Amino acid sequence: MKAVLEFNLPEEHTEHYHAVMATEVALVLCDFLDWLRNQRKHGDLSEESEQAYGCCADSLAEILEDRGLSLEALVG
């Protein structure tokens, strides 16, 4: 099975860019979540800061889920 995306350039430049860069954006999100986890695990954080980092990670995961996105599926 094949899937082909077509864009009318230059009119649909933004849509084309989003499609081409989707994997990179997903990897950035994964890196950011990893960074948040590492800060919580290995950072010298106050309890309040640790909770804030956890809230950020949870919120990002929830936003992705609300949009029907899974980082695992996006980055394969």
Describe this structure in words.
- This protein is mainly alpha-helical and 76 residues long.
- It has a domain at 33-76.
- It contains three helices and no strands.
- It starts with 12 loop residues before the first helix and ends with a helix.
Topology, element by element:
Elements: H1 13-42, H2 47-66, H3 71-75
**Strand-residue fraction?**
under 5%
Mean pLDDT: 89
Strand tally is 0
Helix content: over 70%
Structural class: mainly alpha
Low-confidence residue ranges: none
The helix/strand series, from N terminus to C terminus, equals HHH
What's the gyration radius in Å?
A: 17 Å
Number of helices: 3
The biggest sheet amounts to: none
Query: Which of globular, elongated, flat, extended, rod-shaped describes the shape?
Result: elongated
Give the distance, in angstroms, between the N- and C-terminal Cα atoms. Answer: 18 Å
In short:
The protein is mainly α and 76 residues long.
